[in-house]
Amino acid sequence: MQLPNLAPVPELYVSYESAQKLKVEAASLTSWDLSPRQICDLELLMNGGFNPLKGFLSEADYDGVVEHMRLADGTLWPMPITLDVNEKFADGLEIGQDIALRDQEGVILATMTVTDRWTPNKAREAEHVFGADDLAHPAVNYLHHTAGKIYLGGPVTGIQQPVHYDFRGRRDTPNELRALFRKLGWRRVVAFQTRNPLHRAHQELTFRAAKEAQANLLIHPVVGMTKPGDVDHFTRVRCYEAVLDKYPSATTTMSLLNLAMRMAGPREAVWHGLIRKNHGCTHFIVGRDHAGPGKNSQGQDFYGPYDAQELFKQHQDEIGIEMVDFKHMVYVQEKAQYYPISEVPEGATVLDISGTELRRRLAEGLEIPEWFSFPEVVRELRRTRPPRSKQGFTVFFTGFSGSGKSTIANALMVKLMEMGGRPVTLLDGDIVRKNLSSELGFSKEHRDLNIRRIGYVASEITKNGGIAICAPIAPYATTRRAVREDVEQFGAFIEVHVSTSLEECERRDRKGLYKLAREGKIKEFTGISDPYDVPENPELRVETENVDVDNCAHQVILKLESLGLIAG
């Protein structure tokens, strides 16, 4: 008899012959181009990773999941898996209509029958699923500012899986993993979920977890979407491959999971457990503050350190997978080995390096001791993250029209070019309007699009080791935050608020714009007929009244020095 964790799980794909036929038929259907997050969700729906879901949630299932972590039929499922679309697309649909779901290159991956269409209460979703309607939470911010306003639900018919050109040999569907475990004779499998590089403490922890559960080990890192600012998955996978041979080869394997994380703490832990159950695992390591997003807007952790373990324990039997709780491992100097913190001998010297401290050492090119990480891992991290003084970065000036942003930005550009070492690009508001956004007007939507374009170019400059200096008005906090997230994937983002008062800007009014705005000849003018969100926590605030330009630019240089971005 086959063990239940090794028997195949249902997939949503049709046969090869049916898929060829369906592809031709689907070409004439109304189609939706999926976002990166939706592609991750669709892949796990189709390959059985989200079993028992048969498609994107109906409204009844969505309500049950948000309120009680259960589908309408009572099945445990903690995370809303919905197809969010814009109002224009939703308005053109009929209930019962089939639509084609395409990737970002236009390839048809699946069809979906639209059975439900509704406008969700996103504040309620944020409160129930993430514990707070707080924009400091990356998934809440995504919910309010990126996700579409309308949700569609309905069953999915899978035509083909998304194509991945990277690490193809490391990507397995739930059924491929189950087949591998059957072939290897692995009856008990403990999964280790990670979105960070593996260091020696993780290796010790996973060794112990496998030994405790008397199980083989599956290292199952997430390579879909993680938290903004995380190490990119290419670097992480190279780090994992570098340490795989530190494990006994017959006891450990690694597979990549194309999951879009929500960083939902306790609910996410239960979700990860269900996903690992579908992949044939019998045990799952749940960490301290598992899938936590960090601090809320009050500076407190979103979730308690053991909330995820407690919620998982409550539902363990129903998930059908056993929890192995994460022991926080620390290095004991006198014993020259790792111990769980609760078993450290009395009076011993405990050594530990936090994630923040590791990032600081990498940024400043400082030594990372061998007791903490493997030399091969450190080498990979240094290749991707050179010292800060050699990384690209973006300086983003924001302030009213006439506040002096462009003048200070020009002075800063000249000072940085004088220093040399990295290419410097100035993305001034007027220059961008002329060369990148000449077709845009000044509506809120167009101004947002203009800033997003500036952010995109700045992120590319930063990624390639250059310095981007941006000087738009950028009146809206949400857009500035989105640009920050774009840039911080690749390097530092320094927001400089040029805090010249509106009265002073109007007094200067070199372009005569304020006069026209007061006369009503310019609509939606920042500070007059349109709001300006004053930055709450910029890296630097610069006063320009009675201060010369050279001094203002010098303040920025001193800030960049203090952050280690330019050599002192």
From TrEMBL:
It comes from Roseovarius mucosus. ATP binds at G399, F400, S401, G402, S403, G404, K405, S406. GO terms for molecular function: adenylylsulfate kinase activity; ATP binding; sulfate adenylyltransferase (ATP) activity. GO terms for biological process: hydrogen sulfide biosynthetic process; sulfate assimilation via adenylyl sulfate reduction; sulfate assimilation, phosphoadenylyl sulfate reduction by phosphoadenylyl-sulfate reductase (thioredoxin). This is Adenylyl-sulfate kinase. Its EC number is 2.7.1.25. Residues 9-160 form the ATP-sulfurylase PUA-like domain. Keywords: ATP-binding, Kinase, Nucleotide-binding, Nucleotidyltransferase, Phosphoprotein, Transferase. It is an enzyme of class 2 (transferase). Belongs to the APS kinase family. Gene3D superfamilies: HUPs, P-loop containing nucleotide triphosphate hydrolases, Sulfate adenylyltransferase. It catalyses: adenosine 5'-phosphosulfate + ATP = 3'-phosphoadenylyl sulfate + ADP + H(+); sulfate + ATP + H(+) = adenosine 5'-phosphosulfate + diphosphate. It comes from the Bacteria. Catalyzes the synthesis of activated sulfate. Residues 391-542 form the APS kinase domain. Residues 171-383 form the Sulphate adenylyltransferase catalytic domain.
